[in-house]
Amino acid sequence: MNKKNILPKNFLWGGATAANQYEGAWNVDGKKASTADMMTGGTHTIPRRITKELEKGTYYPSHEAVDFYHHYKEDIKLFSEMGFKCFRMSIAWSRIFPNADDKTPNEAGLEFYDKVFAELKKYNIEPIVTISHYEAPFALTEKFNGWESREAIDCYIRYCETIFNRYKDVVKYWITFNEINSLLVPAGAYLAGALLVDDSGRFNNTEVDSTQMRFQALHHQFVASAKAVDLAHKINPDFKVGCMINYSCGYASTCRPEDMVLALRNDQMNNMLCSDVQVRGEYPSFAKRYFEENNIKINMHKDDEEILKKGCVDFYTFSYYKSHVFGTRPEGDETQGNVFGGFRNPYLKANDWGWQIDPVGLRYVLNHVYDRYRIPIMIVENGLGAVDVVEEDGCINDTYRIEFIKSHIEQMKEAVYDGVNLIGYTAWGCIDIVSASTGEMKKRYGFIYVDKDNEGKGTLKRSKKRSFYWYKKVIESNGEDLSI
C-alpha cells in the first residue's frame, strides 16, 4: 500500500450541518415547533433554557438560525465550489410531521427537501441524511414526554417510511439518530431524547434527572433505529443505514490499574454501549452489569431482542472533537466537551471553549472502532469552534481552523494506512450555524462566514474564509495537499 495516495478515489469529502441549527423558517409552510425551537439563546457561561411555551421578547436562535430555508441554492453552490463530494444534513422531523402523530405528512415540508436534493444532484453532491438530529416535534414531548413513551417509535417509523419512499431515488446514505449516546448523560435528556425531566424548564439540571427514564428512552430509540434499518432495506436494498456516536475519547490519568479500569468503563459505557446494540444487535454484558448495579430495569417487549438483531446498521459514523482523562486527579481539574466531560490532559491545548485538541486521539479512535466492528466508518463531525474576526478588508484569516483540521486529516490518513476502512469525512458546521450547546453564533466552525451575532442581528450575508480555499485544495488533491 502506498502511503502517499492512501485515500480511495471515491472518498466522500464534504461538510455537515443540522436542520435545527441551520434551516430557520421554524413556522413556515406548515412546520411547527421542534424541541430545539423551544430552547432560548445562551452563552458559554449562561445555560440555555427550555421553555414549555414561547416567551415574548425572548430570543430563540433556531427560529431563524442562518436561514438555509431561503438560502439553500446559494449555500449548495458554495459547497460545490469547495468541491464537496457529499453533504451531511438532517431533515427536520417537525417539518414533515408537525404534530408528531399526524396520519399524513406535510406536503410543503416534503417539497422543500425535494428542492434541496435536486440542487445537490445538480452539483453531483451525495446527500448523507440524519433522520433525527437533536430535533423532534415539540408535540412529541408534550404528548408523550418524548422517547420515554413507546408511542415515539410508531411516530418515528411513520416518519421514516414517508421519507424513505419519497427520496428513495435521491438519497443512499441514512443515519438514524445523531449522537444517540448523548442520552446516557443528563445533558442529553432533552437534547437527544426530547424528555422534559424538570418542571422549571431548566437546561442541564442534573438534580432532577431520571437515569431510569433516560435508559428506557434510549431503548426505544434502539428499537426505532433497528426497525428503520429493516424498513429501509425493504424499500430500497441499495440504502445504507448507519449509526452515529458522540465519541468521547478517554485516557487513564496514570498507569495505576484502577485508573485503567475506570478509563475502560468510561469507554464501554460512553462510547461502545450504543454502537454495540446498533452494530451487533444486542446489549453488551457490561451494560447488563451496569443496569443491575444501578437498579435500572429496561421494559423490553417480547420481540425487541429479535428486532435489534434484525436491524443492525451497515456503517458506523461518529463525531470527534476532543479527548479527556479519567482516574486519579484533584478536584478543579475538570474540563468539558461535546456533552461528555472528564479531566484535563496536561499534554494538550484547548480551544476558546475549553475543549482539548487531540488529533492523535482520532487515529486511536478509528483503529479502536474498526477493530471492534469491521464495518465501513465515516467521520461525520470534526471541526474547531472559534471566535472569528472579520478584518477591515473583509478577510477572515482562520489559520487556527486550518491547522486544527489539517492535523486531524493527517491522523485520519495514518489510520487508513493502519488498515481502517474509512469512507468519508464531513467537517462540522461547514458554514457558520447556531451552536447546539450554547445557542451562540460567536462559536463558529464554518469555512463560510455568516453575518449574524449572538442576539440574532445581521444581514445573513455569506463570505468565504481563508479555510474555504484551503479545504477546496485539500479535496481537489484527495487529501494529499495539506499545505497552509
UniProtKB/TrEMBL annotation:
UniProt xrefs under Pfam families: Glyco_hydro_1
Domain of life: Bacteria
InterPro entries documented for this protein: GH (IPR017853), GH_1_N_CS (IPR033132), Glyco_hydro_1 (IPR001360)
UniProt GO molecular function: hydrolase activity
Region forming the signal peptide: none
Family statement: Belongs to the glycosyl hydrolase 1 family.
Protein name (Swiss-Prot/TrEMBL): Glycoside hydrolase family 1 protein
Organism: Clostridium gallinarum
